[in-house]
Fold these 2 entries.
Entry 1:
Amino acid sequence: MPDTLGVGIIGMHMGAGHLRQISNVRGLKLAAICDLDEDLIRGIQEEFDIPFATTKYEELCAHDIPFATTKYEELCAHEDVDLVSVAAPDYLHLEMAEAAFASGKHVMMEKPLARTVDECQAMIDAQRAAGTKLMTAHVARFYSHFQKIKSWTEDGTLGEVYNLYTSYIHNYEQIPGFNEWRFDPERRHQLIGGGCHALDLARWIGGEVAEVSCYSNHFNIPVLQTDDHFNINLKFESGAVGIVVGSFGCAHPYNIDLHVWGTRGSVIATNTTPTARVCLRQIDRHKWLEMPAGAAPKGLAAEFQVLADAIRNDTVPESDGVSGARTVALGWAAIESSREGRPIEPKVDF
Ligand SMILES: NC(=O)c1ccc[n+]([C@@H]2O[C@H](COP(=O)([O-])OP(=O)(O)OC[C@H]3O[C@@H](n4cnc5c(N)ncnc54)[C@H](O)[C@@H]3O)[C@@H](O)[C@H]2O)c1
């Protein structure tokens, strides 16, 4: 294995965020970027001084210079690319992952892993056949204050977790893709595409979910063909319970919340502030303490570091393909519960 792995990034909107962090990750370097939008590519090429592969392609490769292309198949097949980072729209995740695995590459897949449970299974099958690594980019797991909360659930600070609340609240009316792929239920369901942040945090803290019960409604975005608000009740295998809210048309600032109740203490945090509020029985059971959780969140660099280390050490990365698939399955179980008016057991075997 080379000392430094080459990263090829597909989709240069969210992917530009990946690009900005690659140089902060030990063992990774930029090898290639790809987008259909040549203007977007040109802007990034100017900012980062990246050549364009359509001219003197072989010459560029011979000099180990990162290149840009509009063809993702070219990026996936290229020998300088060891790790493909897919930051294209959700409906393209499976075909891009299959192209990467067919060329024996590792994959960092933006959340959600794929649109459906069947697509997740197909992606995992392709990864197993390739024998390479697949990680789901659930970046919220890598925010420093959320990581601190996770450590407090593991080191006993909060005691046994018996309840949690997570939310993903994001008004979608003004973001790119409005009325386009993000609003086409064939290409993206809001609860899977966006709500997966909160669903995944719930699984990360609470463990696997035994049963889901969901109510949803549709008051805010008339052109949306699915419901735009979901209240999801979870019963975890551990006996803990939880509530996940996914809301996509509300008059409310964007935020992701993580609240955890344990037998020794409770904590509430949101991704838009770097601190958490903690209440511990042994200190004062009626009072919140403001807890700085360390440096500002560096989620993207941290998640790429996890995958780089997993490739290097041949270990399973945090938030691997199976975990990403379970989060998608949990979302679909909630949607099914809301449609059918009964509790559903989410699929966990992949
Ligand atoms: N982790 C996060 O918080 C976060 C935030 C935003 C988006 N995302 C995820 O990133 C992915 C992309 O979202 P986005 O907001 O950047 O979407 P977007 O629609 O704004 O941008 C997608 C980009 O992909 C390019 N593209 C489309 N088809 C392509 C193809 N065949 N080959 C190459 N490039 C192609 C488009 O030209 C565009 O530049 C989604 O899966 C989304 O869920 C994650």
Entry 2:
Amino acid sequence: MMNTVTYEEIVEGKVTDLYFERTREILKKKGIKKRVRAEVMAKSLPDDWDWAVFAGLDEAFSLFKEVKGRGMDLNIRAIPEGSIFRPWNAVLEIEGDYADFCVYETAILGFLCQASGIATMAARCRLAAAEKMLLSFGGRRMHPAISPMIDRSAWIGGFDGVSIVTSAQRLGVKPSGTMPHGLVLVMGDTVEATKAFAEYFGSQAKVISLIDTIGDEKFEAVRVADALGKELFGVRLDTPASRRGDFERIIREVKWELSLRGHDNVGIYVSGGLGEYEIAKLIPFVDGFGMGTYLSSGRAIDFSMDIVEIEGKPMAKRGKYAGAKDLFHCPECYLTKSVPMGKRPFGYCECGGKWAKMTEEAIPGKFDVTVESARKRVMRAITTLRALT
Ligand SMILES: [Zn+2]
């Protein structure tokens, strides 16, 4: 048995904090039926983030669809996935009988907090990597049951490929990968392993040789490039931390030696414990990055859900703004502005841009929850944010 719950357990509201279950019981026993609006927002963002990418709504929607199908009367408003949001921005609003939906807060936050954290980390890496290739190797660092969520979030954040086969299938893309150290070790030689890869997979995949298993990166790179010639697309350095010293210097040396022998066309790919700040340092010398732990452990966004309206009247706890809200953003600079529902922000953004409404009625069939639209939204934002930095 695995330490994961089933879809049915989530839909039945079993994955909930005890206090919600008790609240539901009290309200039902007392016969209190009150329609409320509850909103999801984060008061702050992790680390030094001043914006984040909204993701995980697809799973929350599956849950809403299911419980509505079972008779629950809920109205949902949200900003689309892939939207750039900032602290104090309501990203999702649920309107319904509180006794009905309170037990789902735990699951809904879980869907959004983690996926948004990973999508934001992916987008930050994309911003740092400019046009260089980014591959998600993050699946193996988390529970296998959530690898499709990790890779979907990475894809939304602008990654070019994912290594987990099932994740790629769900995204409708080809999985990406090179070769593991295991293949080189078992075959006993980097050149032999690369030749075998080219023999069986050269027609369907780029041949990228892993050159840090047995010998020195420089000499292995030259050996495979000489042996494979034009068949070799690139080399990957996953150099162990204990041997790394100055990773940038190793990479530059490999590039130099390849170039000296006429192998300028061989791409340089790196992986192993890299983060966005290493990417920024290495992009002049590297063609692509494989990202693992840094991506999949992207800090969870601290979303919370709070009641902002009861029976049509604004009401919120201390420290929260009452009333339903609409979120607007400026597509020229991605600043956001929150206003009472039905109102528009006054004037223009400080950059001169025109405010555009983000919050939408999430009506099935009308509200766009496709992963490709979410990804396009992020890519557009990154282009703008890059130009601004
Ligand atoms: Zn603006």
